[in-house]
Predict the 3D structure of the following.
Amino acid sequence: MKIGIIGDIEKKFSQKIINIYDESLEFTCESKHDFSGLIILSKELNFEEKELIYKSEELSAPIIGIQDGFDGLNLFFGGNDSTLTSDSVNQLFLSPGAKLSHIVGGSGWVKGDIKLDKTIFSKDLSDAFFSSMISDKGEILGFEKPGVDWQFGLRFDVFSPDIPRGFENIIKVFLDKCNE
């Protein structure tokens, strides 16, 4: 399976996925190749990287924006830039019925220890998405596209040992969806 990837300059993220999930995974940074999903790790998107997003939509491939890629995906679809912060989230709310809630196995209030260096609120989120994971202060930690499209933004490090239980399933389910 081939996955498109944006912003994995040192190949650390893709190597973690290969080591943890599937040694046969391949990654591409070019839109001329077919791929079955897209991971965005960068806020700044050049022309070729935007072409990867357009191609993902054309292929109906799942897209996930992680950390800075959260901003890249939101900005690409017309949202506003994040503001700097130094905050720690001890409780977060998972929206009932959201795909992310289904993936992690629950909804409602969850305890966690997520460190934030940037944040957005509802007013900053693209109209293409809804917030499916928020802090107790209203900061958006995760968003997704409604309907059948699998497009997500996650503000936090999905490999951090500090994320709540069940959140480790997000990348696995993303890869499973890419494989359908």
User: Anything to note?
Assistant: The mean pLDDT is 93. Strands lie at 2-6, 26-28, 38-40, 63-66, 83-94, 108-119, 130-135, 140-144, 151-154.
